Amino acid sequence: MKKILSIILTMLLTAQLTLAAPFNANAKTKRIPAGTKLSLKMLTPLNTTTNTVGTDFTAMLETDQKAEDDIILPMGSIVRGNIRAIKDAKRMSKGAILYLDFDHVVTPNGRQLPLSLTIIGRQDSTADGGITTTRGYFDAWKQTCKKSGQITTDTIEWGKNVTDSGWQYVIVPVSAAGGVFGTAGYFVYDSIADMIRKGKDVVINQGEILNVILVEPIDVPVI
To answer: Among 20, 90, 100, 168, which has the highest number of CB atoms less than 10 A from its own CB?
Structure first.
């Protein structure tokens, strides 16, 4: 009886050691250093109108991550996270703000390694790491100026392309004048509207690429 118990205990200890092996502090790892830039393809669409704080999302690594010429995180590795916070859109064209937490990446051997990432390279990012649409009236007003100028450009191009005859020399100035009046009207109307309307909600589409940077290094176990 004692012999059977001894065998069972030995088997249980062996199984425990086997399960614990991947988590051994002495396990061989390779490091992806802080400051490494990653590209993630969003697999989950997000929207500040329909999603709430705590909503989970997944993304996929777009490129292989190497260390010493070895691929330690292959393209297609899954990154998971959730919505940390949402600030609703407000009047004066202040857009909603979306804050994302990237929780962990799944390694080829199934380990879940914690991540600390910051989104980079977006003109619509905020100083505290969120994603927005317009930061307020002045930002919306600049967009209105850009749209207004495009009206004049489009009308002039229309005048050039409407005919290839000598009538171009008549039509282009007329279309340009019309564009100027249209631009002025749009500019005045939209500048006033920018002070009244609420800002837009943040939408991240499925398949959209987010560029991020590692804030802290990650040590990836290797076989």
So the answer is: 100
